[in-house]
Amino acid sequence: MTPMPNVSVLEVDDIQATVLRPRPHPYMGQYILLRIDDAAQGREMLRRIIPHVAPAVDWWTPTLPGWMGIAFSYHGLKALGVPQEFLDSFPREFREGMAARAPILNDVGENAPENWEYPFGNADMHIALAIYAKDDESLAAVLEWARQSHHELPQITVVYRMDFSELPEGRNHFGFRDGLHNPSVEGSGVPVHPGYGSPIKAGEFVMGYPDERGEITASPEPEILRRNGTFLAFRKFHMHVAAFRKYLREQASTPEEEELIAAKMIGRWRSGAPLVLAPELDDPELGADADRNNAFSYESDMSGLKCPFSSHIRRVHPRDALDHDLVATNLHHFLRRGTNYGPSLPKGIMEDDGAERGGVFLLIGAHLKQQFEFVQSQWMTDGNFIGHGTEQDPVVGNNAGNGIFTIPKRPVRRRLHRLPQFVSVRGGEYCFMPGLRALKWMAGVEAETARKHA
């Protein structure tokens, strides 16, 4: 990857690479969660690890064997000794944590926090490390950096590890090409392919810059802590692949119809070709072309005959479909960094083999409430904005066996009933991902020093 010819206006040497730069290809890695039981040891760990945290500058050059990002829960910042007056300046949703927001996020039933894996939804999750690499040797090197950061610090405990890797052809466990679209961040220097739309103001994703309203975020305090930082919603999902395949088989009379129904649910064919541009048959060449597979709008499909209103991609990114409504879509974008875990279910298998498989998503933005929480609670869960009542996202919605999916069709629309749970939430948390200067400040934080920077 090469940078855009225009000079970046963001302080990319201070912003963590995970925020602005895409994952490597191919990729593999590990998520590590840590608990801090002694603030001094926690700050010592930070001092050791900071040199290995990758900045967004020169992310595309292969100078590092791997990449590491670091983020903190509210409880983690508290365990590090960040003064309470500064902790209180963080947004309410971050302070409460994702588990406490479960009713808003529709994390109920099987998705409820009481069913999450430890330490998600628990005050023991303090630090999250996201480690990416291109191969086993590189991954081993970065994991050793991480290990050395808390070596002989007995009050720092690893409470969770999870391996992840890229699946064949860059697809997810349901067989769809993954990671095809992210908003373009103004001034980031990241290449922009056609169809990504106008760049979104950097302040929507990174603090310290004007957002779409022309405002610059004034919290949390102090300024050194928030500048070039952001928030992320960490979400781990288990994918019920066999259930997805069985449902398609039950609803279709031919393999071709199975593929069409699957495409209608997602809004793209498995190749990545969007239905708006290939409404009848898959077009793998289109799906693989980064300069064409996002170059579409819904202006020619306002009836949803090509791409249903309730399809996954149309719900999470309505593009111009809501331009005539009182919805400022540019206020609800977030950056998405997705990874896969677990083995693929072999083709043709229709019964669950009991293996753990799914995806982890880091949903990044400067405004958790109006970005992740809005999209999750309104566009993905509430069908009223598209005139579909209680109809949820057909693939990642919390349908629990009673879901409905409407496919516009002439002369009569088709409705699929009794959608099962295709995706289950296994855990999640809200985290703060500081800039590199903020990490250094945090590594030496003391109440008196902090007040001087206020």
Automatic annotation (TrEMBL):
DyP dimeric alpha+beta barrel domain residues: 15-162
GO molecular function, one term: peroxidase activity
Cofactor(s) listed: heme b
Keywords attached to this entry: Iron, Metal-binding, Oxidoreductase, Peroxidase
InterPro entries: Dimeric_a/b-barrel, DyP_N, Dyp_peroxidase
PANTHER family noted in UniProt: BLR4509 PROTEIN, DEFERROCHELATASE/PEROXIDASE
Protein name: Dyp-type peroxidase
Organism: Rhizobium calliandrae
